[in-house]
């Protein structure tokens, strides 16, 4: 039974990164506490150090995304994240206090994401919920005649997370990376970090998480069916894809095209579109976008109206 998971592994390739992730979040939280206490100098130092630790965290993951997960998009993003984190830390230490809001966002992202990653109960519930809903969508759309949801064939797993296609004799499994929790944590962290009325923040959170959840279910259904029926097993694709991703089994080409190429590139555009949509309701998010544009271009860019308060505050009269 051939069952390539929708993500390569359920356990951490580098266990030290799990511990380091909590250390990073703790460092960001320490900086946040210092900021709330009005101790800006201490906050800058603490948060600059947190960004440095964050750079180390991403550095340790480059090998995983490049050679184990084999994702071009994620490898590039992780590699860029290393110098980017160091740059943010340096700017913050030099006195760019507007980066406090981005630092708060990272802290909240970690607080949302890590409990799901490190709790077996929460992780299992999330994986199996996504798997069941994906199976319902596949059957409802009539994409796979006879597809059944079965337990993970891995010896050490009891998860009900594997789509088996009897007609094709192939299957694929939902794992933690397929739940969309990473993207939801990003928006949860960003929305929580900005200063805005609670009602608008709640609406922005509901909108972003709902859209991400629906798109993620659609993504999983597409990958599962594309892999199950070998939609992209075309001779013209086989050679280039196997070379690019270091594959030895031609049967995995469809999975990598559907997941690592099509889905991941579309996900980048989807996240930008969701951010734009939510910012229409929660314009305070544009403060963070302005900081990101400054990091990319080195120029100050104003996206919010002139009468808007800095750092996500209420508009000034």
Q: What's the short story on this structure?
A:
The chain is mainly alpha-helical. It has ten helices and three strands, in the order H-H-H-H-H-E-E-E-H-H-H-H-H. The protein has one domain (15-297).
Keywords:
10 helices, disordered C terminus, single chain, 317 residues, disordered N terminus
Strand arrangement across the biggest beta sheet: 1-2-3
Helix vs. strand class: mainly alpha
Uncertain spans, ≥5 residues at pLDDT below 50?
A: 1-13, 309-317
The total of helices stands at: 10
Largest sheet: 3 strands, antiparallel
Q: Approximately how much helix is present in the residues?
A: 55-70%
Give Rg in angstroms. 21 Å
Overall number of domains: 1
Mean pLDDT: 87
Order of helices and strands: HHHHHEEEHHHHH
Estimated share of beta-strand residues: under 5%
Description:
About 65% of the residues lie in helices and about 5% in strands. It has one domain. It has helices at about 15-35, 40-70, 70-95, 100-120, 120-140, 180-195, 200-230, 235-245, 255-280, 285-295, and strands spanning about 150, 160-165, 170-175. It has a three-stranded antiparallel β-sheet, covered by helices on one side. It has ten helices and three strands; from the N terminus they run αααααβββααααα. Helix 5 (about 120-140) packs across helix 7 (about 200-230). The longest helix has about 30 residues, at about 200-230. It is mainly alpha-helical and about 325 residues long.
């Amino acid at each position: 039974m051939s069952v390539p998971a929708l993500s390569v592994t359920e356990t951490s390739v580098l266990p030290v990164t799990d511990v380091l992730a909590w250390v990073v979040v703790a460092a960001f939280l320490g900086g946040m506490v210092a900021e709330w206490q009005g101790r800006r100098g201490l906050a800058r130092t603490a948060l600059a150090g947190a960004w440095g630790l964050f750079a180390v965290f991403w550095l340790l993951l480059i090998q995983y995304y490049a050679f184990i997960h084999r994702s071009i998009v994620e490898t590039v993003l992780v590699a860029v994240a290393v110098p980017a984190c160091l740059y943010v830390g340096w700017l913050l230490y030099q006195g760019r206090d507007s980066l406090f809001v981005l630092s708060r966002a990272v802290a909240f992202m970690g607080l949302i994401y890590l409990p799901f990653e490190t709790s077996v109960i929460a992780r299992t519930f999330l994986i199996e919920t996504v798997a069941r809903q994906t199976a319902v969508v596949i059957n409802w759309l009539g994409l796979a005649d006879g597809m059944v949801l079965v337990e993970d064939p891995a010896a050490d797993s009891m998860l009900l997370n594997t789509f088996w296609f009897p007609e094709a004799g192939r299957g694929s499994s939902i794992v933690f990376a397929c739940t969309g929790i990473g993207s939801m944590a990003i928006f949860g962290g960003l929305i929580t970090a900005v200063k805005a009325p609670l009602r608008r923040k709640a609406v922005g959170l509901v909108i972003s998480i709902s859209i991400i959840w629906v798109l993620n279910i659609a993504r999983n259904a597409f990958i599962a069916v594309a892999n199950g029926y070998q939609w992209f097993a075309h001779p013209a694709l086989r050679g280039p894809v196997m070379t690019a991703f270091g594959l030895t089994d031609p049967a995995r080409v469809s999975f990598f095209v559907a997941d690592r190429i099509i889905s991941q590139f579309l996900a980048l555009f989807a996240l930008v579109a969701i951010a734009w949509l939510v910012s229409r309701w929660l314009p305070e998010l544009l403060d963070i976008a302005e900081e990101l544009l400054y990091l990319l271009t080195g120029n100050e860019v104003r996206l919010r109206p002139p009468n808007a308060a800095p750092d996500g505050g209420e508009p000034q009269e």
